[in-house]
Each structure stands twice: as structure tokens, then as C-alpha cells.
Design goal:
Helix content is 45%, strand content 16%. By secondary structure, it is α/β, with parallel strands linked by helices. The protein folds into two domains: 81 residues, Winged helix-like DNA-binding domain superfamily/Winged helix DNA-binding domain (Arc Repressor Mutant, subunit A), CATH 1.10.10; 257 residues, 3-Layer(aba) Sandwich (Rossmann fold), CATH 3.40.50.150. A hairpin with a 2-residue loop joins strand 13 and strand 14. Helix 7 crosses helix 12, helix 11 packs across helix 12 and helix 12 runs parallel beside helix 13. It is globular, with a radius of gyration of 24 Å.
């Protein structure tokens, strides 16, 4: 018998092996970066830097954040991760920037965690949204992923159900604290999206509302988008539709009508229906049901009827590898509630099945897009 020949193509060089080991460990420790971000938010570090005039030392941050004196060196280690990751910046040429005398400042990322970035709704603070994403319930659900893929008993359940024994929406309804965290996160995200839409453009950002005199924000939660539209465009009559327990907790607004109801059953009539971060929560067949209710609610295309979707079109994010990776990571994240982020051909399929004749991707907003769908 001939000796087994070694396949030299399968043998890595020492340099390749060490680089692969480095990359593997880097991927494995990615969750530590998330935990560091969550710790910085819980400790109020971005806000402490901002309240210190935009720059703070290690001891200054420890004092403002209430750090126990024995944990000062550990705080330095946390800040080193945050600065290396670009969440914070440190300025100090000598000694090194991660020393006890370093001065820490905000970056564009951490400004969004400190209430920085003035917009149409005042200051933006994305801390609540991070609380939805880096959340023990979501993390525990994703730790059940391998079971969910292989266990026959889990075939009809979402990742969340496998981990927690109920759906994500049941948990929000049953746990007021969890519901408050979720709704606050959606409000924070809606405010920054509306600011991006309404600022900078020569037409005041109102292109997507052209010809619209009435609008229903279906699944609109506490109404952040409807409130922003009503204030910027007083001629648009805005209604928010959501489940009774959601609208019951919404702050009242004289310019917005809140209606308790189920978008799977009925959507109030309007020139346009807005769906922001709604359809990515549902499977195709459920999206078709929602879109059919939308079609019933709006007039014909000739009369200006349309559905405005703010959601992700996978593959549409311009530019960086970071944008592309963000989209596919978000898609996998949404799997925990059986949600899905769609490519354009997948969007087109559900639009057709729901009875719509045409659509246009009107604008890309970061990793999401505005899609107008016409009856």
C-alpha cells in the first residue's frame, strides 16, 4: 500500500497559523466589547465626561461614577477597551494614553450616549436603544442558538421562546420594566431617524411626505415619529396605531391621535401608512397580512396612496465593510424573535404577494432605507 501523502496545501505557514489564531480569538472576544459598552452606559461614563466639560481624568470619572476606590485600576482597564474600540478617546502623549493621568474625551459614538448631537427633538441619547440590544434576555436567547437549529422540539419556536418559555411580545406585555426598556429604545431610535430625515435637505426633509395629508404610524409605539412629523408638518394629520397596553403608556400629545388596535386586523384610513422597524420582526406570511391591511387603508396610487417603510435592505448599505457587517449581524440578531432582514428581491416578493404594483427605495439612512410601496 502506498504511503498516505501529506497535502501541503492544507498546512499553514507559521505566520498564517498565528494570524488565524489571532483572528479567531478576536472574534471570540467580540462580546467583551459589548459588555464594556454596556458597563460604560450603566456607570454613566459618557455623561460624566460631558458634564465635566467634555474631558475628564480617571480619578474624575471614578468620582462622578461612584466607583469604589479599590476598583480604580479596573476602571482604567475598562477605559482602555473603550478607547481602543473608538468609543472614547484619550489624550496624553507622555505617559501613555491609558495611564492614570490620561484625559478622556468623547467621540461621535459616545456623544450619542451622552445626549450629544442636537436635533429636532432636542438632544439625542441612544442609551435606551443599547439597552434593548445588549440585553440579558436577548443574550440568553442567542446562547440557545445551537439547540434551536438542531432540536426538533424547538422547530416551531423562536430562539426567545426556547430560552424564556414565551414570545418576546408576551414578555414585554407581562413585564412592565422590560416593556419600558423596549419602548424607550424605540423612541430613542425613532428620534434620531426623524432628525436625519428632517434636517439638511433643501425641502426640509419632507420629500417622503409629498402629497400626504394624513398618516398612520402602524406599530408606532409611543409616537416619537408621529410627534416629529406633526411638529414639522402641521398640515399632516398623524395617528399612531398600536396595541392597547402600548398606547396606554404613551405620553399624550395634542397633535397626535393614539388608537388602540391590531395592525393584523385593521389599520385606520389615511393617505399613507408608515411602518418603521415593523416588518423585520415578522415572517413573510405575516408581513403580507400587515401589508394587505395597509393597502386597504390607503387610497390608490393616483390619489397619492403609499406605504412608507423604514427598514433594512440587506446589501444596500453604501461603503464600508463595517456597514455590510452591521447588516448581516442585525439579521442574525433578529432571528431571536423569528424576525428577518431582507434583501431587495425578498422585499419585492412580499410586496407583490400583498397586491402592490410598484416600489422605490427612496433613500439610504445609515444601514437602513426608506422604501415607498404603491398600490
Amino acid at each position: 500500500m502506498a504511503p498516505i501523502q501529506e497535502n501541503k496545501e492544507l498546512i499553514m505557514s507559521t505566520a498564517d497559523m498565528l494570524q488565524a489564531h489571532l483572528e479567531l480569538c478576536h472574534h471570540s472576544f467580540a462580546y467583551v466589547k459589548s459588555m464594556a459598552l454596556r458597563a460604560a452606559i450603566d456607570l454613566g461614563i459618557p455623561g460624566a465626561i460631558q458634564s465635566s466639560g467634555g474631558a475628564a481624568t480617571l480619578s474624575g470619572l471614578a468620582s462622578k461614577a461612584g466607583i469604589h476606590p479599590t476598583k480604580l485600576s479596573n476602571l482604567r482597564r475598562l477605559l482602555r477597551v473603550l478607547t481602543t474600540s473608538g468609543i472614547l478617546a484619550a489624550t496624553d502623549d507622555e505617559p501613555p494614553a491609558d495611564s492614570e493621568t490620561a484625559v478622556y474625551t468623547l467621540t461621535p459614538v459616545s456623544r450619542l450616549l451622552a445626549g450629544g448631537g442636537e436635533g429636532a427633538e432636542g438632544s439625542h441619547n441612544m442609551t435606551p436603544l443599547i439597552g434593548v440590544i445588549i440585553n440579558p434576555l436577548a443574550v440568553a436567547a442567542h446562547l440557545s442558538m445551537s439547540e434551536w437549529f438542531t432540536d426538533e422540539r424547538a422547530a416551531a419556536m423562536s430562539l426567545f421562546e426556547v430560552a424564556h418559555g414565551c414570545t418576546r411580545w408576551d414578555k414585554i406585555k407581562e413585564d412592565p420594566t422590560d416593556g419600558a426598556v423596549f419602548n424607550a429604545g424605540m423612541v430613542a431610535d425613532s428620534r434620531i431617524i426623524m432628525d436625519a430625515l428632517l434636517r439638511d435637505d433643501s425641502d426640509g426633509g419632507g420629500e417622503f411626505l409629498q402629497g400626504v395629508n394624513s398618516l398612520v404610524d402602524a406599530g408606532g409605539g409611543h409616537g416619537a415619529i408621529a410627534v416629529a412629523i406633526a411638529r414639522s408638518f402641521p398640515h399632516v394629520k398623524c395617528t399612531v396605531l398600536d396595541l392597547a397596553h402600548v398606547v396606554a403608556g404613551a405620553p399624550p400629545d395634542a397633535n397626535v391621535k393614539f388608537v388602540a388596535g391590531d395592525m393584523f386586523e385593521h389599520i385606520p384610513p389615511a393617505d399613507a401608512v408608515l411602518l418603521k422597524w415593523i416588518l423585520h420582526c415578522w415572517k413573510d406570511e405575516d408581513c403580507v397580512k400587515i401589508l394587505r391591511r395597509c393597502k386597504e387603508a390607503i387610497p390608490t396610487r393616483d390619489a397619492g396612496g403609499k406605504v412608507i417603510i423604514i427598514d433594512m435592505v440587506v446589501g444596500s448599505a453604501a461603503g464600508s465593510q463595517e456597514s455590510k457587517e452591521m447588516q448581516v449581524l442585525f439579521d442574525l440578531f433578529m432571528m431571536y424573535i423569528d424576525g428577518v432582514e431582507r434583501e431587495e428581491h425578498e422585499w419585492s416578493k412580499i410586496f407583490t404577494q400583498a397586491g402592490f404594483s410598484d416600489y422605490k427605495i427612496k433613500r439610504v439612512l445609515g444601514f437602513r432605507s426608506i422604501i415607498e410601496v404603491y398600490p
